[in-house]
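Dear colleagues,

For the upcoming journal club I promised to circulate an example of a predicted protein-ligand complex. I picked one with calcium ion because it came up in last month's discussion. The inputs are reproduced below in full, followed by the predicted structure.
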Amino acid sequence: MAKWLDNAIFYEIYPQSFKDTNSDGVGDISGIILSLDYIKDLGCNALWLNPCFTSPFMDAGYDVQDYYTVAPRYGTNEDLKKLFEEAHKRGMHVLLDLVPGHTSVYHPWFKESMKPERNEYSDRYIWTDTVWESPEGMGCLSGISDRDGTVALNFFSGQPALNYGFYKVTKPWQQPMDAPGPRATLEAMKDIMRFWLSMGADGFRVDMAGSLVKQDEDSKGIIALWQEVRAFLDAQFPESVLISEWGEPDKSLQGGFHMDFLLHFGPSHYNDLFRCEHPFFSSEGKGDVSAFVNKYLENYQKSERKGLICIPSGNHDMDRLARTLSQEEMKIAFAFLLSMPGAPFIYYGDEIGMRYVENLISVEGGYNRTGARSPMQWDDSTNAGFSSASKDKLYIKQDESPDRPTVKAQMEDASSLYHEVKKLIALRQSHPALQSKGEIDFTYYKENAYPLAYVRSHHTEKILVVINPSSKQVEIPLTHEVAEVVYSCGGVASISDGKLICPGGSATFFLLA
Ligand code: GLC
Ligand code: CA
């Protein structure tokens, strides 16, 4: 089922910042449709769209006010349907962003839920039964309506938590998962999924997927909840795909998710790679990859070597790669990102090394994330080809440095990051060992040392990847019989006396004999 996932390479689009076609300064769905050929030409065959539904945008659309309607600033439901069709025509697939954990405070469900008289939506959110009691361990809102209670939050103050129940009930106002309120919430979410899947969406990236059920220490409740959703999908939309923002693949895969994201928060050590004081992928060579690999291996084993852990180049919640790495360093970073198991996710603009825009005032709940959400830089026309609106109308200010990277300039330069990324994608697509389900065995990942080496394999094909981001040449024992070099960047690792000699700033992929 969903065979296309096996060689999927995703491109994440933050709709408000991608391409504006009606000159209001905000990206739109027509702009995404116009850009499909660009994305396909790069080699990506799947999209993840951040939430594009009606919202007051207090958290950039992760505060949904109407799950069934495209936000007017992005276009109409018809436009989104057209995007699905145009993507499918090109052999591409589209995941929407499902935000099941919370709504906006402006959602009609919440407005009903705030009423003191009991109604259909009274139990749609998590309320205590007196305004003087707060739910433990969660943010909350109180004194906001005549209903005598406090309501739990899931994220910002504008995002009250939907009620899927408590696995362990310890207070009278806490409801078990099978109580009518939590059941109705889950059914409402299924209806939303059904609506978009029927229209042509291929599935969902699920926001904060692991946190819907409360007081659920071993995640038994939440796993059961997603198994039920998967059973519903298997019956009605067997081809539909679910990828979770969860960060615990052993649990999410059990819940029926196809893949899980590696998170930039929590215990993953993802930030050791690209975003810390001494990133492993910096040429200064002071980084450490071992903690990352150990944690990765732990998850890999726990999920039965399925390797369905998606490692993103970045996303709308974290700094751009270019904040810590140079264009040359990013090439080596992409050699890693595009040769790991699980579907790779390229955050829009990372393929050209777009920069994090410093010192911006927060836009729509972005705060420090705002600098990573600036409008796409296409060419050398007005506003880098993002929009023909006047500069002060742009959704977020752009990188204004004269040497800002653009798609046009990088396409014209054969040695650009863009071309390296494109080459790596093509390489991955021609070698099943490098794709999502190929296995991985790490062969060199010493503490505070370089390089990083691993073997990817699928059936009889085996590829040894050796990556040395540091500027110094390093040597490691050669553990395999190599046949030929299928890719190299920044120099080619060579073999002498049973050793592999890796030039500074290089990545080499060997086909094994
Ligand atoms: C996820 C999203 C983030 C959002 C949050 C609350 O982490 O990626 O952008 O603010 O959930 O929905
Ligand atoms: Ca627009």
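Two points we might discuss: The chain is about 25% helix and 20% strand. The mean pLDDT is 97.

See you all on Thursday,
B. R.
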